[in-house]
Amino acid sequence: MRLTQIERKVRKEKTRLSVRYTVITLAIVVLLMASFYLIYSRSIHDSFDASIAQRAASIAGVLSTKEELTVETLKSMNLSQNPFQTSNEIIEISDAKGTILFSSSDAASVKIVIKSGSFSSGAYPEDVNNQIVLTKMRAYTSPVEQRPYYVTVARTYDDVDGVLRSIIASFLVIIPFVVVITGLVSFKLASLAISPIEESYRELKQFTEDASHELKTPLAAIKANIDVALSKDVDETQYYRKKLSVINQSVNRMVNITASMLYLSKLDSQGIEARREKVDVHALLEEARERFADAAQNRTIEVGVADGENLEVLTSREVLEEIVDIIVENAVNFNRPGGKVTLAACSARGVVEISIADTGIGIAKEDVPRIFDRFYRAEKSRSRETGGTGLGLAIAHDLAALIGASIKIESQEGVGSVFTILVSENSTKLQ
């Protein structure tokens, strides 16, 4: 199907929004991951330092209980056999001058700066593929109580780095899934955001097509009658009066269509003011009956107002009157000869219900959901015969929304219809 320029722009905008949502969401996810990594890294390093300090203090406590500390004594203590020791740990004991008396490693000493009660960093030389590589270590020096000795415990960052690398690897695995899921969700959100625009465009497009079709019919009738009149060499006034009458009917229909379209346009742009006032509902229905009495009599249709409570409602009289007129006019036009139209009103649970019932042709069940669509006609040929524009009920629906009311339909094909206007709130009985 060929897309219009507007549809292409809408799709382009949807894609652009999807990409934007994805990028923003991904940036937030990456920021959260980075924050988690930094916080966890800080926490694991603090825990790492605490374990080193605790280990050094524990060994210093043991040494403080020995009467004499010699190299032989230190070697015989098997300090490196502590069950909490790891393979990445080195223990060194030195005197006040910095001379190392004991080291748990056979390799060169850890290159650190001994500073009692503080952490420091050092380097441990390792043989990796016949090359000496200095491995970074973290060390803590603890003094031996009442002895001129210091215990230094140093550990590599292998365990810490391993955990952090695992976290980074997990993030790298998760991010592609986040991108895919975010992309799908973003496209869905973009579709939801653009959906009202697409719906408005479809309605506008359908409205334009329907309006063009409705105007085309009377224009075609006008042109056909003019062409026929011009082609005839007739000098009879009655003949031309007949043709002009048909043209006049077509023009009137176009006037009605354009007037209805302008009215709908005002409704859409909220250009109609609804002034609130107290409205006597029974009097309003009686006035509607009188307005359509002649049209109903010409079709031998009886229009009556049922007896009921005197009600008043706080709303716009002009708007409510227009809604009632539209529905009553349809009830008369789409009725059968000898039929009836009954207007009634009642109040239930703070809602005024104004009903217009007819014994007309009714509405098919499948047509009811679309009865308020613009230019929609359940009975197209009958509607054109009566001069209908297909906009009346659409106008009534929008007018009802303007005053906070709603319209309910009950209809049975071949039996008749009941339109009920529900005006909620501010409804009280007349005193």
From TrEMBL:
EC number: 2.7.13.3
Reaction catalysis annotation: ATP + protein L-histidine = ADP + protein N-phospho-L-histidine
UniProt organism field: Candidatus Cryosericum odellii
PANTHER family, per database record: PHOSPHATE REGULON SENSOR PROTEIN PHOR
Protein name, per record: histidine kinase
Entry's Gene Ontology cellular component terms: plasma membrane
PROSITE patterns the record matches: HIS_KIN
EC top class named in words: transferase
Domain of life per record: Bacteria
Stored SUPFAM superfamilies: ATPase domain of HSP90 chaperone/DNA topoisomerase II/histidine kinase, Homodimeric domain of signal transducing histidine kinase
Keywords: Kinase, Membrane, Phosphoprotein, Transferase, Transmembrane, Transmembrane helix, Two-component regulatory system
Gene Ontology biological process terms, A to Z: cellular response to phosphate starvation
